[in-house]
From TrEMBL:
InterPro entries: Fe-S_Maturation_MIP18 (IPR052339), FSCA_dom_sf (IPR034904), MIP18-like (IPR002744), PaaD-like (IPR011883), Zn_ribbon_PaaD (IPR056572). Residues 12-69 form the MIP18 family-like domain. This is Phenylacetate-CoA oxygenase, PaaJ subunit. Residues 119-164 form the PaaD zinc beta ribbon domain. PANTHER family: 1,2-PHENYLACETYL-COA EPOXIDASE, SUBUNIT D-RELATED, FE-S PROTEIN MATURATION AUXILIARY FACTOR YITW. Gene3D superfamilies: Fe-S cluster assembly (FSCA). It comes from the Bacteria.
Length: 166
């Protein structure tokens, strides 16, 4: 049992080293994209991955990176299962991931996602990741990607992306 726990911890350590291709300071575990790691009766490692959205173009890349990382550590056979049983939500992001986002210059999601799966209404006053002022205004509901909104800080005058609650 101790050996299985150690293997499970090793798997999570490996997964925490795999970066999100869009925001490389975040790992797939920071984003909460890994929904589970199991070892089946054939000693195969099963990794459950929920992409940030079902049509994510990086899904195949992430699967390949996960399998390569496990193979490099001599942990095979491994299989990545895409789990779409629940839609990914920003509620699954870790606090560490949110801190990394902020340090990277992207305002992290503030608040919980709606139960219905739609994003929280956007409003002025999102904290600026640069100067921490709340004297900000929404410029556009869509920023560099559909999951981000564009804001401008009225204090430091810097524009910044806000990762919407989804």
């Amino acid at each position: 049992m101790k050996q299985i726990r150690l293997l499970n911890d090793t798997c999570w350590d490996i997964l925490s080293q795999i970066s999100d291709p869009e925001i490389p300071v975040l790992s797939i575990t920071d984003l909460g994209m890994i929904r589970g790691v199991e070892i089946n009766n054939q000693d195969e490692i099963i990794i459950k991955l929920t992409p940030t959205y079902s049509g994510c173009p990086a899904t195949d890349l992430l699967k390949a990176e996960i399998l390569s990382a496990f193979e490099q550590q001599g942990l095979s056979p491994a299989q990545v299962v895409i789990d779409l049983s629940q839609a990914w939500t920003t509620d699954w992001m870790t606090d560490t991931g949110k801190r990394k986002l902020k340090a990277y210059g992207i305002a992290p999601p503030q608040g919980d996602a709606h139960q219905c799966g739609t994003h929280v209404a956007l409003q002025d006053g999102i904290e600026c990741p640069h100067c921490h002022s709340r004297h900000t205004r929404l410029v556009s509901e869509f920023g560099s990607t559909a999951c981000k909104a564009l804001y401008k800080c009225q204090s430091c005058l810097e524009p910044f992306d806000y990762f919407k609650c989804i």
